User: Fold Hexosyltransferase from Malus hybrid cultivar.
Amino acid sequence: MEGLNITDEMLSPNSVSRQLNDQIALAKAFVVIAKESNNLQFAWELSAQIRSSQILLSNAATRRVPLTIRETETAIRDTALILYQAQQLHYDSATMIMRLKAKIQTLEEQMSSVSEKSSKYGQIAAEEVPKSLYCLGILLTSEWFRSPNIQRKIKDRKQIEMKLKDNNLYHFCVFSDNILATSVVVNSTSMNSKNPDKIVFHLVTDEINYAAMKAWFSINSFRGVAVEVQKFEDFTWLNASYVPVLKQLQDTDTQSYYFSGNSDDGRTPIKFRNPKYLSMLNHLRFYIPEVFPALKKVVFLDDDVVVQKDLSDLFSIDLKDNVNGAVETCMETFHRYHKYLNYSHPLIRA
Assistant:
């Protein structure tokens, strides 16, 4: 024989390799039951016999020659003997099936628990602020308060102020508390723009990150792109009576739902319990007309995008009297528009 075909060998009814392999599979099941019965000595004997049989199979595969009856006679006899001993210990098929089912159920429960922990830890790792990024915010905030150069740049922004309400320019907005992520959006947009001097970015952040965000975009330039930084706490119209979702975000039960993780016995996927949804920055996109009342058209960008082409063509799209245009992901995964939009309004109802 020129070589060993493992598939043919295992399918052959006369193959000693197949017989040996079947014994190994059964012995492995008995090892599990022996350990559960706390019969560790017998489990060790089974494991030792399994290793001996596996060595024979390994040698046959290495030399590419099938095992002979003479080679395997001792191993098959010894394995059969120890399997018989297992049966004498009442490791019969019925007992084995019941115990294996119990073992499978236990493993499934453990797997479910580990999967849930993995999701939670992964979410924490993804959302946690790295030390370097946290320190960046602190350093920028310190720079903002102590650097006269930055304050001077802020005061000398008359030309930029004129651009903020110019509807002949390309206006983009980003609502985020992540300085570097926002910077990537602004920079990638400017780098791929044919006319970066016509781009205006309106950035909205929170009170905590306002000074750092302001400092960063004052220190750095982006090919002539005009950048405005605001904080949503300054929006006087943003109150619970006008914005119902704000009242919901401040609700104790809502906050407990996102932070405790135990209120619905894990029925809700962890990705939908992300505390970031409690931030008004995540919901502010529904109030763009109130945030920028003087602008006729604004393109909203998430802070996790990298722009790879010129976006000026977006501003020439005819929306056919529609209030907004959006990518299709917004159509399927979000089912709570009624909390943000007034469906009795004729433009929305149409």
Remarks:
- The chain has a mean pLDDT of 80.
- The first strand starts at residue 170 and ends at 175.
